[in-house]
Amino acid sequence: MADDLPTLAARAAELAAHDDETAERAVLGITGPPGAGKSTLGERLAQAVAALGVGVVRVPMDGFHLANAELVRLGRRDRKGAIDTFDVDGYAALLRRARTVRARAVYAPDFDREVHQPVAGSIPVLPEARLVITEGNYLLSPDPAWRAVRGLLDEVWYCELASDERVRRLVARHERFGKAADAARAWVASVDEPNAAAIAAWRDTADLVVDVASLGLPAGRD
Questions:
Q1: Confidence band, pLDDT 50/70/90 cuts, at residue 19
Q2: 159 with 32: CB under 8 angstroms?
Q3: pLDDT score of 178
Q4: What separation in angstroms does the CA of 130 have from each of 52, 61, 106, 206?
Q5: Residue 124 lies inside a defined structural domain of this protein
Q6: How far apart are the first and last CA of the chain?
Q7: Which of 171, 143, 151, 132 is nearest to 30 (CA)?
Q8: Cα–Cα distance between 209 and 158 in angstroms, integer?
Q9: Are the beta carbons of 55 and 131 closer than 8 angstroms?
Q10: How many domains does the chain have?
Q11: Mind listing the pLDDT tens digit for each residue in 58-93?
Q12: What is the helix (H) or strand (E) element at residue 133, kind and residue range?
């Protein structure tokens, strides 16, 4: 278990420590249940790695949410965020390109929480980037499609946070983005927490467990 940001940054930078400019990029995955602090850790870690002189970029899995219209068509709109509400094949294809294409920019989508939709072409993975940090709930899933994602990651770190604090952050986040308090609590109980239980079952397959509370990071958008 790790609880120190400089140590984490040094470990992440080491993944990209090679002199061959034509070699594949390193890709670090950050996973954990909803509300555990993946996005905040990814942001702070990228800043700390950049300060070490390593080119780094964040490519969050959230950019591969299926569009709301497609979730409606599939009958999954009421459980957005579940494992089958993401374009896993598109995510794997993007990570593969981000690893291997070094001569030109590779463009990745991001997720706009104001409109609750993915936005294509938002994040450039520039040629000088040597490390890609990607955050997502299901990076350790044993499902065959998600195992293809795991195979593209040099390491996967699991964010751990006490469940009561994690739920408090989740409810606050849903309220911040427009849900009434009762609706926010209901969504957390019926959608986020079943997902969290599945994700927690894969914790022991991570390369590293990060004690998020010990890092002292503020509650973010994760």
A1: low
A2: yes
A3: 84
A4: 12, 19, 13, 22
A5: yes
A6: 20
A7: 132
A8: 5
A9: yes
A10: 1
A11: 999 999 999 999 999 999 999 999 999 999 999 999
A12: strand 131-135
CATH of the domain at 51: 3.40.50.300
Residue 39 identity (one-letter amino acid): S
DSSP label at 17? -
Count of C-beta atoms within a 10 Å radius of residue 77: 14
Tokens of 206: 């991570």
List Cβ neighbours of 138 (8 Å cut-off, separation of 6 or more): 31, 61, 83, 86, 88, 146, 149, 199
Nearest residue to 83 (alpha-carbon basis) of 115, 61, 114, 116: 61
Q: Which two tokens stand for residue 212?
A: 């998020």
Read off the pTM.
0.92
- The residue range of the domain holding 74 is 5-215
Helix (H) or strand (E) holding 156: strand 155-160
Which residue carries 């400089």 as its tokens? Answer: 6
Residues in the chain, how many?
Answer: 222
CA distance 216 to 144: 35
In percent, the amount of the chain with pLDDT more than 90 equals 78
Tens-digit pLDDT profile for residues 105-159: 999 999 987 777 899 999 999 999 999 999 999 999 999 999 999 999 999 999 9
Which phi and psi (to 5°) does residue 216 adopt?
70, 25
Question: Is residue 12 included in any domain, yes or no?
Answer: yes
